[in-house]
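Person: I have long wanted to understand how a fold can be written as tokens. Underneath my words sits a plain record pairing an amino acid chain with its backbone structure tokens. Those tokens are not coordinates but codes from a learned vocabulary of shapes. I should like you to check that the lines agree and flag anything odd. The protein I mean follows directly.
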Amino acid sequence: MARKVLSGVVQNDDCDVLGHMNVSRYIAACSDAVFALQRDIGMNEEDFKNGRKASFAVVHMESDFRAELHAGDGFYVTTEIARIGGKSLTFHHRLYRDRDDALAFDARFTTVLLSLETRRAVTIDADLRADLAPWLAADAEA
């Protein structure tokens, strides 16, 4: 289920010479959304160091720009899980402009659960799958 995980305001420094939010900032907002979701299920700095010692790391991204954002525009990001595989997971992020709820950016991040010790993909275990279940899209592959 898609949930609002992040909100912000476009700053002047977020904009490029074309006068709209730079590509890197859209991607950064979605990356931050991954960490916000992880935090919400208990995958935080303590878990990274002393618990599971793993985090989702992006290995592939597909995106569409739908509407421009400019300095001063408020925005929010919704995230849901489109697919859970053995070691991989696909996040579906949507970034909206606050004032009119216009979809500005739509992205899918395919990630792997990366061991922070071995730097290799590891299996998404049953406990983690249960923690992720509330975030599954209605049409998700789990």
Q: What stands out?
A: The beta strands are 3-9, 54-65, 74-84, 88-97, 102-115, 136-141. Residues 65 and 105 are 5 Å apart (CA to CA). The chain has a mean pLDDT of 95.
